[in-house]
């Protein structure tokens, strides 16, 4: 127990006694102020330091005072005291408070009481950190189209669309969706510091809706996004989408993976895209081409489409998995195109084949210079009387059953240029097996 007391005397009469004490088991120094019954106490307290203590007035009710204070006492004697007494008592009391706090020897660790500010939870801090660290990797893409003024005949460039993208490497390669840049006469890329650069198209893959651009920006302004893996994703894990919906600045939406191994069709060619990630993170117009991140801030997909009759997010969005994107981007950066094997045929819509009561892919045309034509597959044609003669109907490739066009594409995606595949067809009323050597897809302008 550390105790200090001081008494103030005036004309040999005890006016007040101020006592401060601190117990080793308490964090605060306690104080007691006693005054003669003939005095009436009025106290106003003003904090002067962060050291807390307890003030115990004669009523024995405790009031916690944050920080040391200057105690201003207004004392009035019923018989009327002089103003000199008031001033002297105020001075002595203030000195007593300061002196006894020094003697109390309150250790600094327990003496300071910090009012806890409003703090974020650990998961909130992780989300904030993820957004701050990955936002510099996300860019805003403006699609400009050439339009001729009807009156002046001047050719102007007007925005016809916009979307998002992200920095792939320090060489200035930007990855986005193909449908974001489709039909553009000029492209502008805006970085996170609001600097804008002209972008050139390095290459694109219409079938998988992926495109690669390049900007001549300083390397210190380019922040490549961390590349993750999509093969081990699980339904229910958290995901984060960053983009520029509706032309707004960088926006973060959160959600979970609500489905895996979905299949959607490419907006450009209708060719199926397999193993697509389904998420409930809000993806709106303008989010296309932006990154989908896991909780570690690694890229796991490209936001590409939503399922919504109104065109706005309805809780079902789709992202192309990064494992698919990785191989495509590598080919586009190295060769400017994707080398994908084809059979070289045109086939009928699936509904037409179903109406005929058949199962498989009906060959409408097999050009003679294509791999299927060279192998001898027959096209659909008409005879001399105008009657329709059905061509070959593909029922399997390499022993894998083919019931529609999506099945055929899925099998070809697992093959390489130059592979020899065995195509089983239904020709008339009998089946035949025809070997076909796959060739690369022709160049696209």
Descriptive report:
17% of the residues lie in helices and 40% in strands. The chain contains 8 helices and 31 strands. The longest helix has 22 residues, at 83-104. The radius of gyration is 39 Å and the shape is elongated.
Tell me the helix content: 10-25%
Helix/strand/pairing class, anyone?
alpha+beta
Which CATH first-tier class of the largest domain would you pick?
A: Mainly Beta
Largest sheet properties: 6 strands, antiparallel, barrel
- What would you call the shape? elongated
Strand content: 35-45%
In the CATH scheme, what's the topology name of the largest domain? Thrombin, subunit H
Topology readout:
Layout: E1 2-10, E2 13-22, E3 29-34, E4 39-40, E5 43-47, E6 53-56, E7 63-65, E8 69-73, E9 76-77, H1 83-104, H2 108-111, H3 122-134, E10 138-148, E11 155-167, E12 173-176, H4 178-181, E13 186-190, E14 196-205, E15 210-215, E16 238-243, E17 251-265, E18 272-279, E19 291-293, E20 299-306, E21 317-321, H5 322-335, E22 341-342, E23 346-347, H6 350-355, E24 361-365, H7 371-375, E25 381-382, E26 388-389, E27 393-397, E28 400-401, H8 405-412, E29 420-427, E30 430-437, E31 439-440
Parallel strand pairs: 3-6
Antiparallel strand pairs: 1-2, 2-3, 4-9, 5-8, 6-7, 10-11, 10-13, 11-12, 12-15, 13-14, 14-15, 16-17, 16-19, 17-18, 18-21, 19-20, 20-21, 22-31, 23-24, 24-27, 25-26, 27-28, 27-29, 29-30
């Amino acid at each position: 127990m550390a105790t200090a007391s001081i008494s103030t005397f005036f004309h040999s009469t005890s006016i007040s006694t101020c006592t401060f004490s601190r117990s080793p088991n308490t964090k605060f120094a306690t104080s007691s102020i006693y005054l003669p019954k003939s005095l009436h106490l009025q106290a106003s307290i003003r904090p002067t330091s962060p050291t807390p203590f307890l003030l115990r007035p004669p009523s024995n009710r405790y009031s916690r005072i944050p920080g040391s204070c200057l105690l201003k006492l207004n004392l009035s004697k019923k018989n009327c005291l002089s103003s000199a007494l008031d001033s002297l008592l105020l001075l002595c009391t203030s000195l007593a408070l300061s002196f006894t706090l020094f003697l109390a020897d309150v250790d600094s660790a327990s003496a300071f009481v910090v009012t806890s500010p409003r703090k974020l939870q650990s998961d909130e801090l992780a989300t904030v950190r993820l957004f701050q660290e990955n936002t510099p990797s996300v860019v805003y893409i403006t699609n400009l189209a050439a339009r001729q003024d009807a009156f002046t005949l001047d050719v102007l460039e007007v925005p016809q669309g916009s979307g998002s993208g992200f920095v792939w490497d320090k060489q200035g390669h930007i990855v986005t969706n193909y449908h974001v840049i489709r039909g553009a006469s000029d492209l502008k890329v805006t970085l996170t510091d609001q600097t804008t650069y002209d972008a050139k198209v390095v290459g694109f893959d219409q079938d998988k809706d992926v495109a690669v651009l390049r900007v001549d920006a300083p390397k210190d302004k380019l922040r490549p996004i961390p590349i993750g893996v999509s093969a081990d994703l699980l339904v229910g894990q958290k995901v984060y989408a960053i983009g520029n919906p509706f032309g707004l600045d960088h926006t973060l939406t959160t959600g979970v993976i609500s489905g895996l191994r979905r299949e959607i069709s490419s907006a450009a060619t209708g060719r199926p895209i397999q193993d697509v990630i389904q998420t409930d993170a809000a993806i709106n117009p303008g989010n296309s081409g932006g990154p989908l991140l896991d909780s570690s801030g690694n890229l796991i997909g490209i936001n590409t489409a939503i399922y919504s009759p109104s065109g706005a997010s309805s809780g079902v969005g789709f992202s192309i998995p990064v494992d698919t994107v990785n191989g495509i981007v590598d080919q586009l950066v190295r060769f400017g195109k994707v080398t994908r094997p084809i059979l070289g045929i045109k086939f009928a819509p699936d509904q037409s084949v179903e109406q005929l009561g058949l199962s498989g892919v009906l060959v409408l045309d097999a050009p003679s210079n294509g791999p299927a034509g060279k192998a001898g597959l027959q096209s659909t044609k008409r005879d001399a009387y105008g009657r329709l003669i059905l061509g070959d109907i593909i029922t399997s490739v390499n022993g894998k059953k083919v019931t529609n066009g999506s099945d055929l594409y899925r099998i070809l995606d697992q093959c390489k240029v130059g592979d020899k595949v065995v195509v089983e067809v239904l020709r008339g009323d009998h089946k035949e097996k025809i070997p076909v050597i796959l060739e690369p897809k022709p160049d696209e302008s």
